[in-house]
Every structure is written in structure tokens, then in C-alpha cells.
Amino acid sequence: MVGLFTLKGLLESARACVALRLLHHAYCNRQFLQTHYAENHFLDFQQLSYHDSNLSAVRGFTMSYVIELLFNPEAEDAIRDLWQRIADAGYPSSQDADGYRPHLTLAVSDAPAFDVNACRAHLADVVRSWRPFPILLNHLGLFRTIENVVFLGVAPSQALLDLHRATFGLCQRVATAWRAYYAPNHWTPHVTLAFDLTPEQALGILALAWDMALPVHAHAHALQLVEITPDYARNLILCELGRAG
Fold first, then answer.
1. Angle of the 16-39 helix axis to the 158-174 helix axis, nearest 10
2. pTM of the model
3. CB 7 within 8 A of CB 1
4. pLDDT digits (tens, 9 = 90+) for 158-187
5. What is the dihedral of CA 120, 123, 124, 125, to 10 degrees?
6. Would you list the DSSP string of 198-219?
7. 7-15+25-193+216-240 falls under which CATH superfamily?
């Protein structure tokens, strides 16, 4: 078992061959992550858990701050097409979330005190050192948690992992209470396709993989800070890669 999927459950789906192919992609990406973080002296990779109990804390949050990586417009359109296909098949989709934009979450803070101006300055420092670079979204995955999240998996390139590490480093200077499963030795890069699913819905969405146009070739375009409450999501900062802010 790789950790992203429960093999028995997927093999019971009508398209078990899809599940096996997805497991192969997940295993290859896991091996890359393990090698990268070991070389950079992060914590033991075996501490990683895709069933992070901290997810339960999300249900009681009042305000969170999320740093996201945004894609080029063509990649956004491709992801929205996947959302639409899921919705057309009768399943919950990320397109149902008001104002939800395709993105890759880099860090989340539930800190009661968050210095937005300091974050703006730090994000500007980070993006100055980066230019847009390729990102490959090449497989589906499943987080078996209280939310049952189905996601589009991202190949963990060296550039992506380095940007994540740089971004998470600045986060620790802005606020505390960053969610641990986004830390460099826990993070699984992904784009959410659907969440708050029953097991049957999750397996049904995974079965759609057979007809989905994968991989999606994207480019890292910008970093964004979003403020989220139970009632709204508000974009606070947008910094394009290669620009001062």
C-alpha cells in the first residue's frame, strides 16, 4: 500500500486497472519526495501520514490564511474542465465552491494574529527570485480523511519543492500555527478536484480518470494569499513570479 489509496477499495471499483495505474504514479512521486527531503535533512519521511488527524481541526476554524500557487490561464481552464466533468457526472465538484480558483496550496495558518503587510513583503522577496516554471499534473489521488478529498496529483519537481520550501520558510516569520501537513516533510502537492465526499462518491470520481485528459501541462504563475472564514474567501495579495509584487 502506497498510502494515497486503500488498494482493496479501489480494486472493488469497476475500473481496477485505473487504480493500479494511479498507484504507480503515486509510488514514483513518493519515492522522489523521500529522496529529496532526506538529502535536505528534513525529518524522517516515515513520519508522513496521509490520514492526518489535524484535518479534524478544520471543522472548527474561524479564520485561516492560505498561501497558494496559481497556474497559467490555459492550465486553469484545463482544471476547470475537469471540475465541470465531475459536476456533469453528478458528483460534488470544486467548481461548486464560491470563488474557488484552481491552485496548489503551499501553506495554511490558523493563527489568530496574522501580519498581512509582513507577508506581502516576504512574498515579494520570494517571487523576485523565481521565473515561471513547468508543473506536471499527471495523476489522481485520494486523501481518506473526514473530508475524503479527491485531487489531481502534481509531479514533485525540484523547482516546485524548492519554491515550496522557500515559501514555507517565510511563513514561519509571519505567523505561528501553520498546519503541519503542509510542512516540507509532510506536504503532498495536489490540486483539489472534489471534497466532502462519501466513499462511494470518491471512488466514482476516481473511476472517471479513464477518460480524463491527463497529464495537464501547467506553469507556476503567481503566489496568492487568501483569507478564509466560514462565510467568505477573500484574495489579499497576488505576486507574479519574476516581479517585485
1. 60
2. 0.74
3. yes
4. 999 999 999 988 878 888 778 888 999 899
5. 130
6. -HHHHHHHHHGGGGS--PEEEE
7. Cyclic phosphodiesterase (3.90.1140.10)
